[in-house]
TrEMBL record:
Species assigned in the record: Olivibacter ginsenosidimutans
Pfam families registered for this protein in UniProt: DUF4249
Top-rank taxon, per record: Bacteria
The protein's name: DUF4249 domain-containing protein
InterPro entries, A to Z: DUF4249
């Protein structure tokens, strides 16, 4: 699974001030000198990626730290964290001694920075809270799993792009009326998961039958490609996170980090979601 890591690396104004200062010194000297630009590394931040779904009973949490500008590596796993998940059920669903039922499980570290819990089934309508402790710092995120929305059909969508036929995949589903729904899509191409981000809400199609065409400039589909789509039903906070990634302009001078649902300044997200899958061969 692809990880994300975000870090604001250096102060732009500081960077340009040092350049101008160095050029000034160079102009005053008759001999050549090396201009030493002192780039400041940003503070390392915790990045947490956690998911539980209604289709699996084994779930994973990935914990790392952002990598400083001067570092040579790209992934910095966090080991020996304490990771727990709590399930809360409202009083209207299950009552135990007059209090909503709560269960708690602990994740085990199965490889550096990768934490796993097994035999843990998650259910729609319940709220899950992930607790992560790294040293003396604690991070918490909650996610409520929505009711599932199933894919009704899947197929090839062909459009004309400047005289050339472009192909993508489309799914059809019935959006529930009167309920705010948020969707995230995962696309697997010829058995290989892509890292493309698709996030949508039902603001303009509440209660309607929807055909969602998954267009992306990096999704280059050809005839006979095998495509699997997973439609995830997510809550609003998780939608905002992935919509933030989707909306970031790669050409921006300082793209913003997507809004995390974790406390205490951690980056990343925790999602409790439903899953509906469908597969097709591109025609």
């Amino acid at each position: 699974m692809k990880k994300f890591s975000y870090s604001f690396l250096a102060s732009t104004s500081f960077f340009y001030w040092r350049i101008l200062w160095g050029i000034g010194l160079l102009g005053l000297s008759a001999c050549e000198k090396v201009i030493d630009i002192d780039l400041k590394d940003s503070e390392s931040k915790i990045v947490i990626e956690g998911n539980v779904s209604d289709q699996e009973d084994t779930h994973y949490v990935y914990i790392s730290k952002t990598v400083p500008f001067s570092a040579s590596g790209t992934y910095n796993p966090v080991q020996q964290a304490v990771v727990d998940i709590t399930e809360s059920v409202s009083d209207s669903m299950i009552i135990v001694g007059g209090i909503g039922l709560k269960t708690e499980r602990t994740f085990a570290e199965v490889s550096p920075g990768v934490y796993q819990v097994t035999h843990f089934k998650a259910y729609p309508g319940r709220t899950y809270t992930l607790h992560v402790k790294v040293g003396d710092e604690e991070y918490t995120a909650s996610s409520t799993m929505p009711m599932p929305v199933m894919i009704d059909s899947i197929g090839t969508v062909t459009d004309d792009f400047f005289g050339d036929d472009g192909k993508t995949v489309g799914v059809v589903y019935q959006d529930p009326p009167g309920v705010k729904n948020y969707y995230r899509y995962l696309v697997t191409l010829n058995g290989k998961p892509t890292n493309l981000v698709f996030a949508y809400n039902d603001k303009y199609n509440d209660g309607k039958q929807v055909q969602r065409n998954l267009y992306h400039e990096d999704l280059d589909l050809k005839k006979d490609d095998a495509v699997m789509v997973e439609q995830l039903g997510v809550d609003e906070a998780v939608y905002r996170y992935f919509n933030g990634i989707q909306s970031n302009n790669p050409g921006a001078a300082a793209p913003a980090n997507p809004v995390s649902n974790f406390s205490n300044g951690a980056l990343g997200y925790f999602s409790a979601h439903t899953v509906s899958q469908a597969a097709t061969i591109i025609q």
